[in-house]
Each structure stands twice: as C-alpha cells, then as structure tokens.
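I have a small job for you when you get a moment. Would you make up a two-line entry for one protein for me to read? No commentary is needed, just the two lines. Write everything out right here, beneath this request.
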Amino acid sequence: MGVKICICKCVHQSFLCTDFFLFLCLREGPCKKMHILKLNRTGKFALNVVDNLVVVHHQDTETSVIFDIRLRGEFDGTVTLHQPVLPARSIHPYQIPIAGPSAVAGQIPIPCKLYSSSWIVFQPDIIISASEGYLWYLRIKLAPIVHLLTDKGRLMDFLLQRKDCKSVILSVCSQMLSEKDRAPLPVIATVFDKLNCEYKKYLEAEHSYTLAVESSQGRSNALVKRPVRGQAVIDQSDMYTHVLSVFTDLKEVPHKFIIAVLMEYIRSLNQSQIPVQHYLYELVIKTLVQHNLFYMLHQFLQYHVLSDSKPLACLLLSLESVYPPAHQLSLDMLKRLSTANDEIVEVLLSKHQVLAALRFIRSIGGHDGASARKFLDAAKQTSDDMLFYTVFRFFEQRNLRLRGNPNFTPGEHCEEHVTFFKNLFGEQSLLKSTAS
C-alpha cells in the first residue's frame, strides 16, 4: 500500500492565522486529513521536511518554526492539532565567499540574504537562491534545541525520533545528573523509561529476527530483514560508559543521590523486562563500598535487589577484607545460582575451609568425581596434620567404595601425598582392600 503526506495551506481571515493541513494519501481510497499545523501568523510561507520534521519558513518575520507530528498534540476526535515544538528561530547565517579574479586576500565574505523573495523551495530539504545562484540543503542542529526545550520528557520524545541523536541524548543525560543542572528524580526516571522503551523495542525485533532465521532451517530467508539499530537505541553499555560511570566519580554530588539514580536506572530496566548487566550491579556495589554504606549493601543483597551472578559473587569475595560478611553473602549467592558448584569449592579451599568444601560436594553428590589431589593440596597447605589425616582417610574410603581398593590410581597424581601421609603416620592406610 503506497502512503504519502500531502500538505495544504488554509488561511482563516477572521482569525488572522494560517494553518497547514496534512493529509494521508493512500494508493487506493480517498485522502484523509490527519494533522493541522497551527502557525498563528499570516504572510508568505515556504515549507521543508527535514529529519521527519516539518519546517515552515515565514518570510515576513524571517523566521522558521518546527513541527513534529509524532509528538503528542491536541486531538479533537478527527484530526490532531500541533503547535510549534520550539519558538520561532532564524536559519543560521551563511557567508558567501568571494571568488574569481577580483577576489582580494583578506576580503570579508558577503552575508547571504536569508528568506529572500527569490528563494525557491524544493522538497524535501532543498532551498535555492535564484538571485545569488546558490543551492542549500537544510539541516537541523540538535544541540541548541536542548536549551530551548526545557521539558526533559518532551525533549527526549523529540530527540528519539531524530537520525543523529545518540550523542545529544547522552549529553542530556549527563547534564541532568550534574550538580549545576540536576533534574528531580521523577524527571530522571521518566527519561530512563523512554530510553529503555526504545531499547526494548530493538531487543524484541532482534529476538524475532533470530527466531525467524532459526525457523527457516536453511531455507531462503531473503524476506527476513535484520532490524537496523538506530541511534535512538541507548543500551546499558552506552549508559554505563558515557553517563553512569562518569556520574559516580563526581565529588560534588551527594552519594545518596548517586545511589538513587543508579537504582532508578536498574528499576527502569527491570520494568522493561531487560536483563540487567552485571557491571551495573558492580557499579552500585563499588559506590556503596566507597561511601561505607555496608548496611545498605547487605539489604540490597538480602532482598535480592541486586540479581545473583558469578561476577557479582566474585566481587563480594574481594570485599571481605573491608566487610567480612561479604564472604558468606558471596557463598549464599553462588549456592542460589546452582550452576556455580565448582566456584563454591574453589572459594572454600582458597579460604582453607577444606572440611566445609568436602561437606558441600557431598551435599550435592559430587564427591565421587572430586579431585583428591586438589583437596589434599589444600589440606597440606593449612599445616594442620589432623586435617590432612581426615581428608586423606575420606578419599581412601571413597576409593574403597568405588573400586574396592583404598589406594589411589596413578592418574590421580597423589603419590607425594601418600608419601607425606606415611612420613607423618608411619603407614599408608589402615583400610583393607575388599579384594584381599
């Protein structure tokens, strides 16, 4: 179905204003009036379409106004009425360089006459000056708009529809978190929600594409197009690298506000059902530790505000020297993961908790395949002879139960531990082989 927009100007003499009507034209069927652009002025107008924005030039005042029909307008039940997004502004001045044999070094360029009566406008974004012989492409500069549109939510709605918006959006996010231009937390939350809404749309499109490719099972999938990631997709890596990690280093910002912002971003990701990357949780933990907010850290972990992960558990282990309960919190997290049994054993052995490691592998039924050498190495490093004796006997009993012989096989590489045991206790084993 072919679709295009037609624009019609209508002058209301009684109200001394000019409106532009936007019609939706289908390939089949009548045109339908969809939008009315309220100019609130009369005179000569010209129109361009740039980056999905309708730019209306007013010759009498030498200014232009911008309309964005994707922003929410006033719907009267039939059509949507739109006011200009921004106050009227003039096109940026342009200097025409003097060229040719008459040019003199250092001569000042001639300013171009803006909004000239000799201008000819072509769609979508071309302006021709017939008197001066120049052709221009009209472009939108997004950076100045940040200071003209004070409503951060509406500003974000506007920026997310633009082609080259990413750097400007990240700049706005950094600005609203700064000490000088700090925005209220509800405003920050609104911005995060809008960003993550676009982020979620892209993730869903990518997931649908993956499913379509997999379901094709080698058949031609020329009709399946991979979604294009536009600049409006601000993912977690973008926010972490360009905004949040920089924000947490600001000395003049209260730490309570920093924590609140980080948790608000995580809340927004959860609300959009986007899995939170572990480095965001790590940023929260490091910020809490930096400000000695261990009680808050404990609560976040206890009530699962921070989701379990192996990287997070490893980070907690590294905090044991400054916060001893972090060791047990890490073990509890690894146990809840149920896919980190090897990591739990390594953690316990690194802390010389050999018996605790043995009890753990027995509780999960993994003692039959456990490496005897690893446990004997750890027991020997403790310099506790009775602990070494207990661990040695444990694996002898395992060998007897599994193979009917308490001796270690050559593949277990426990010869040095057998020798060490004989030197300590005068014999290799008190256990008897069931085969003898």
